[in-house]
Design a protein that fits this description.
Layout lengths: L1 H16 L8 E4 L23 E4 L7 E8 L7 E10 L11 E2 L18 E11 L11 H8 L3 E12 L2
Antiparallel strand pairs: 1-2, 3-4, 3-6, 4-5, 6-7
Amino acid sequence: MFKKYRKMILLGLFLATGYSNIFALSLQTDLINSNGQINVQYSCKGGDQIPSVQWQDVPANSQSLALVLEDPDAPSGLWIHWLVWNIPATVTQLTSDVGVVGKNSWGNLRYQGPCPPTGQHRYYLHLYALDNHLTLAPSSTDAQLQEAIRDHVLAEAKTMGVMESQ
């Protein structure tokens, strides 16, 4: 009997989960090489060049995107290297003229790359698809961003790279 209704059951499960969730938000960046290491040119040792970041499969009902680069292994706790929000949901890559840049853990409104003081650190790059536009000031911090996006995240993509102190 199962074989007889298998296609109908599978179709029902497909429709019940919503076909918009079939393709998950995905994130690509040259911040991290194929071995999972942070590329030096995007770190403090390489002049803090801004990495390229692209994405695809943004949920159709997204209004904006937000991007966060963080180091959870910093001696003082979570360290934020980069915050950008209000990236239009219609774009597929980050450029210097899109979004609002927030305050990193150094207190600066710019990208500052990985720079582990000791040992090996993990660096997470998060991309959030949001159902709204944020009304945060450019001087806002990660804590303020996280509060503002709570209950508004439609999808999240993340990637992680590591870097050893030298």
